[in-house]
Amino acid sequence: MKKEPVTATVDDARDPSSDDQSAANHATDAHPSLMETFRQQPRAVWVTAFAAVIAFMGIGLVDPILSTIAEALNAPESKLTLLFGVYLGIQVLAMLITGWSASRFGPKRTLTVGLVLIVVAAGLSAFGSNIDQLIALRVLWGLGNALFMATALAFIVGQARGGQRGAILLYEAALGIGLAVGPLVGALLGTISWKAPFAGTALLMLAGAILCAWMLPSDGPRTNRIPVAISDPIKALRNRTLLVTGIGSAFYTGALFTVVAWAPLALSTANKANGHGAVGPIGTGLVFFGWGLLTAVSGVFLGSRLADRFGQKEGVIGAIIVYAAVMAVAAYGAMTHSVLLIGLAVVLSGIPSGVLNTLFTSVAMSSGDPATPRSVASAGYSFLRWLGGAASAILVAHLASWFGAPAPFWFAAAYCLVAVGAVSLVRNDATDHQPVPEDAALIGTEEM
Question: Tens digits of per-residue pLDDT, 18-28?
Fold first, then answer.
């Protein structure tokens, strides 16, 4: 069967041209089950979903081996956390070029280049001999991840059978598997060597890149794609509500990446204070397996229910307050050198994180200018969001050095309070009268 060229953007695939058409599409989708969705998908969708699983695995891959890298390379904490800081920092800049790249060069080319960059970065990391090399390669990895994730969802939505809902079910499955399995893979391979998780990821992603280049439909003519300028995401932030929501999300994301970047080191610090060695890859991997699983499940199943009951804005504020409380528990655990308490706080933080991935994005997209394509508004929002995460990941080790191991968690709780204040300024009533988009959980997580 001949493959049709891809010309639709994410917005084309998601946004029907009228309310009547939207209702008809919703009725046609009829909320297919996951098994029904699996049975009817073409190979191009399976290939993209496979690559997405591997990309999502990369989120938690480094956490289980962070202490092992520190010992093997004699790396200071300030450089270990840069593995996350530069990874996020490059994605801040990438938010300005992903839409432009897909518009100018085509989504397949953009996606494939992203996969190739991940393969190169992960493969070379397996041969790294010092922490500076790993930091430089994480820049390349972050750029590749941004290019891939910006277009993967568009491919699945555009090519999947069973309607938009079926496509999103498949992408949600990839998200859940990747977030949960990534830390376990990192832990198991990390018992062999800290290099093994990088090599394993490179091999799996190489298979995904080859399959995508071979099986995905070719890009259509450039004239059929909606033009996007590099400056468009920044221009979208002229919308005050989108700007305020993005600032609030930036501070929350700073708290989120305090957990991702600092928790593995805090666990080892507490364990050493109790007369033991650093927490090994298996222990850290199990903690972040629980975190990833709860993040995926709560984002997909809990976020929209809370919005229906309390409203989107109220749901965001409530989840941020819960996250701040969990950070206080983690800080107390670091103060008392309790590995159990820190680990429990990390796992439980996945619940409000999943909710916020969904609802923060939903509030931002509901408050955007209707004249601005949603993909452009999302890129502007993500620009601010990951700016907060990058700054936090870079700062976190210095906070611990200046004020002690519990300090990053206390600062994370303070970030949450600032985020609550920012979201409280959102006065757009439309955010509580529009349903949560089916793909809000995906947009909220895909750049990670």
Answer: 444 444 444 44
Rounded to whole angstroms, the Cα distance separating 144 from 135 reads 15
What lies within 8 Å, CB to CB, of 405 at 6+ separation is 266, 269, 270, 334
Q: What are the structure tokens assigned to 261, written together?
A: 């970047």
Calpha distance 203→201 (Å, rounded): 5
Q: In this predicted model, what pLDDT tens digit does every residue of 297-356 receive, in sequence order?
A: 888 788 878 888 888 889 999 999 999 999 999 999 999 999 999 999 999 999 999 889
**How far, in Å, CA of 334 to CA of 343, rounded?**
10
Q: Token pair of 393, please? A: 């990941």
Query: 67-71, 304-308, 426-430: which range is least confident on average?
Result: 426-430
Buried b (16+ CB within 10 A) or exposed e, 79-105: bbbbbbbbbbbbbbebbbbbbbbbbee
Q: Which of 187, 259, 6 is nearest to 111 (CA)?
A: 6
Work out the angle at residue 218's Cα, subtended by the Cα atoms of residues 217 and 221, and round it to the nearest 5 degrees: 135
- Is the separation of the CB atoms in 187 and 281 below 8 Å? yes
Paired with 6 in beta bridges are 219
Look at the block and give the residue holding tokens 């004239």: 223
- Are 419 and 323 in contact by the 8 Å Cβ rule? The answer is no
Judged by DSSP in three states, 219 sits in strand
Query: Please, is 354 exposed, middle or buried when counting C-beta atoms within 10 Å of its C-beta (0-12, 13-18, 19+)?
Result: buried
Q: How confident is the model at residue 438 (pLDDT cuts 50, 70, 90)?
A: low
Q: What is the pTM of this model?
A: 0.82
Joined together, the tokens standing for residue 109 give 């080319």
Complete DSSP assignment for 141-177: HHHHHHHHHHHHHHHHHHH-SSHHHHHHHHHHHHHHH
C-alpha–C-alpha distance, residues 256 and 176, integer Å: 18
* Cα 252 to Cα 254: distance, rounded to the nearest angstrom: 5
Coil/strand/helix, residue 280: coil
**Taking the chain, what is the end-to-end CA distance rounded to the nearest angstrom?**
35
pLDDT in tens, 166-187: 666 666 677 778 878 889 888 9
Contact in structure between 243 and 385 (CB atoms under 8 Å): no
User: Is residue 12 very low, low, confident or very high in pLDDT (cuts 50, 70, 90)?
Assistant: very low
Give the residue-averaged pLDDT of 387-410.
95
Go through the domains of the chain in sequence order and give each one's CATH number: 42-446 (1.20.1250.20)
Give the length of the chain. Answer: 448
Do 307 and 362 contact (CB within 8 A), yes or no? yes
Rounded distance between C-alpha atoms, residue 66 and residue 190, angstroms: 10
Return the C-alpha torsion angle 172, 177, 178, 181, nearest 10.
160
